[in-house]
Amino acid sequence: MNISIPIISLIIFFLILIVLGILFWPNYGIITRYKKGLQNTKRVLIEDSLKHLYDYEYRNLTPTINSIAGNLNISVDEATKLLEELKALNLISLSNNNISLTAEGRSYALRVIRIHRLWENYLAEETGYQEKDWHERAELAEHKITHEEANRLAAKMGNPKYDPHGDPIPTAEGILPGKKGKCLNNIEPGKVVKIIHIEDEPKMIYTQLLAQGFHPGKEIQVIDADSEKVKIAMDGEERIVAPLLAGNITVVELNEPKFISKKYRTLLELKPNEEAVINSLSPTCRGQQRRRLLDLGIVPGAKISILMKSPLNDPVGYLVKDTIVALRRKQAKEILINS
Description:
It is built from 11 helices and 14 strands. By secondary structure, it is α+β, with helices and mostly antiparallel strands. Among the domains are: 182-253, SH3 type barrels (Roll); 265-337, Ferrous iron transport protein A (FeoA) (SH3 type barrels). A 6-stranded antiparallel beta sheet has the order 3-8-4-5-6-7. Strand 12 (316-320) and strand 13 form a beta hairpin. The longest helix is centred in the N-terminal third of the chain and has 29 residues, at 30-58.
């Protein structure tokens, strides 16, 4: 079949338009998306570096090129170039190898920190994500959410002052209260303290602390402490905590302590034909899950017993205030009962 030259030229012309569209189409073209990816990567590096510098400033530490490179997982050369760019943007000042935030850089850092901690609070109160995953998800969200969106999110949640780990949330005006409390390593034996903050980085240590039952608001008593261990009383038993773990726990001493160290059973341990009284919900039970259990009558003081079990014991039917409630094993583990 013969095809005229004008038709072939027209086909080639349209093919070229299609290719150009694929490459350069606004918002969707490959080149546009590639450039946006580079911009996003650049933005992440800038914002993460400002967070690192503010964190060091908040803790009275001295940041260095090496600390920035290590925190951002980039080379020293890349960190050097990044600092030069931050200086050009008037976000930092450099003097005799001293790195410090400008007023503009500090304000920018606080906006990012505000978004991060608000999003962690949102994940804790409004979603079913596990506690160990909140930080990483907030790390992603903090670079995408605008300042205006963060303010709307804060208003929706009642403008919380602290995130789930006990970190203060900067206000919309960039005001952050000063650091308070002491490291658990620095508490004298015999003192009763309350946990006000648990550091969520590195994740490996944070996960260990969660597994051992440490949470903001929990009261503990320091029995003994030295360079090798910290011995405490918590949840009705004595425990040995490694200094590395204790160093990530911030506490305040209680002026008039009425320390009661009692170990509670979970509903999961309830036996057939046994009736128990609900003491409380675990601090790890938050948000929608907590509200659902409270709506079902799982409240302190309520009597509860096993009514029936499924073939695999999951879920289990419980009788609470003349109401049958079916709970999964994971839910029952979050309910504390009096022994």
